[in-house]
């Protein structure tokens, strides 16, 4: 068990970071299925469907950033990650590194996490609408 002094030295709690990552992954998987339903109903094919998925996956990450990460990173507390850099979008800017394992996991991890669900629901609803 970590003491209060340990939390003052390293304020990031790994259990909370893992919980945040799991919550983000669940959101991205669910939204990927919804994007697949939308792409299938719209009748998108080939590159337009994949670009639809990539655009809306990044939009979802951006909205999560605006609603949950950005407001808490504007607090007066000066946060430094373990490399001593400031708050950055990828390496800690904006507090992403404060709440998630890496900036890449936050911004682009959802694209691969939900890809299978997207393709499955995309082809299902495309077949149902076009049949």
Question: What would you say about this model in short?
Answer:
With 131 residues, the protein is mainly α. The chain contains seven helices and no strands.
Give your account of this protein's structure.
Helix 2 packs antiparallel against helix 3 and helix 2 (14-42) packs parallel to helix 7. With 131 residues, the chain is mainly alpha-helical. The longest helix has 29 residues, at 14-42. The chain is built from seven helices and no strands. It has helices at 4-9, 14-42, 46-73, 96-99, 103-107, 109-113, 115-130. The chain is elongated. Helices cover 71% and strands 0% of the residues.
- What integer is the average pLDDT? 81
- Look at the helices and sheets and give the structural class: mainly alpha
Order of helices and strands: HHHHHHH
Broad shape = elongated
Please give the radius of gyration in angstroms.
Answer: 18 Å
Uncertain segments: 84-93
Number of strand elements: 0
| Biggest sheet descriptor | none
In what range is the share of β-strand residues? under 5%
The helix tally amounts to 7
Q: How helix-rich are the residues, as a percent range?
A: over 70%
Distance between the termini: 59 Å
Produce the secondary structure layout:
Blueprint: H1 4-9, H2 14-42, H3 46-73, H4 96-99, H5 103-107, H6 109-113, H7 115-130
